[in-house]
Amino acid sequence: MPACVRVLGIDPGFGTVGYGVLEMRASKIELVSYGAIRTEPDEPIPDRLLKIHDQLERLLQECSPDESAVEELFFFRNVTTAIQVSEARGVILLAMRRHEVPIFEYTPHQVKLAVTGYGRAEKGQVQRTLKAFLRMKETPRPDDAADALAVAWCHLAARKFPGGVRKA
């Protein structure tokens, strides 16, 4: 395992894409940055996808991740939303691939399990745990950014303890 690894975690979305960058040196995990890429509902779909792509490209150039962790999609009740998020996720995966950043995918259950030890933890519990683990003064916001940090944390846990993060 390299002495230092930087991971870009992504919570895919269409209106908001959360991102979080964590770095692990030896066994210590440090927060590098986090935030969200936002698109406006009144923008045409192709323009929203282009905005996600362009901002992610910029982020990839700025943070130079060694690996990426992307949350897998889960069941949606709204088919239109599922299609839009899937399209955004495709743009995200393409950008990662073009930058030759290895992509690892995790289910929401795996992420919650890695962060809190409980695969059905509530969002607030995940956020409070991350805040403590990363020694943050405030709870990470927006929720999408907190989710992305959790995905990055999950990946680092999977690297540190292979087989410890498994699918439900």
Automatic annotation (TrEMBL):
In terms of SUPFAM superfamilies, this protein maps to:
Ribonuclease H-like
Gene Ontology terms: biological process: DNA recombination; DNA repair
**Catalytic activity from the UniProt record:** Endonucleolytic cleavage at a junction such as a reciprocal single-stranded crossover between two homologous DNA duplexes (Holliday junction)
EC number(s)? 3.1.21.10
Q: Which top-rank group of organisms is this from?
A: Bacteria
- Ligand binding (Mg(2+) 2): 71
The note describing how and how many cofactors are bound reads: Binds 2 Mg(2+) ion per subunit.
Q: Which keywords belong to this entry? A: Cytoplasm, DNA damage, DNA recombination, DNA repair, DNA-binding, Endonuclease, Hydrolase, Magnesium, Metal-binding, Nuclease
Keyword Metal-binding in annotation: yes
Chief subcellular location equals: cytoplasm
Molecular function GO terms recorded: crossover junction DNA endonuclease activity; DNA binding; magnesium ion binding
InterPro entries reported in the protein's UniProt record: RNaseH-like_sf, RNaseH_sf, X-over_junc_endoDNase_Mg_BS, X-over_junc_endoDNase_RuvC
The residues forming the signal peptide are: none
Q: Where does Mg(2+) 1 bind?
A: 11, 144
Q: Where in the cell is it found?
A: Cytoplasm
Active site residues per record: 11, 71, 144
Q: Record's Gene Ontology CC terms?
A: cytoplasm; Holliday junction resolvase complex
Q: Which cofactors are named for this entry?
A: Mg(2+)
Q: How does it assemble?
A: Homodimer which binds Holliday junction (HJ) DNA. The HJ becomes 2-fold symmetrical on binding to RuvC with unstacked arms; it has a different conformation from HJ DNA in complex with RuvA. In the full resolvosome a probable DNA-RuvA(4)-RuvB(12)-RuvC(2) complex forms which resolves the HJ.
Family, similarity comment: Belongs to the RuvC family.
Q: What does this protein do?
A: The RuvA-RuvB-RuvC complex processes Holliday junction (HJ) DNA during genetic recombination and DNA repair. Endonuclease that resolves HJ intermediates. Cleaves cruciform DNA by making single-stranded nicks across the HJ at symmetrical positions within the homologous arms, yielding a 5'-phosphate and a 3'-hydroxyl group; requires a central core of homology in the junction. The consensus cleavage sequence is 5'-(A/T)TT(C/G)-3'. Cleavage occurs on the 3'-side of the TT dinucleotide at the point of strand exchange.
What protein name applies here?
Crossover junction endodeoxyribonuclease RuvC
Lineage of the native species?
Bacteria, Thermotogati, Thermotogota, Thermotogae, Thermotogales
Q: Which gene encodes it?
A: RuvC
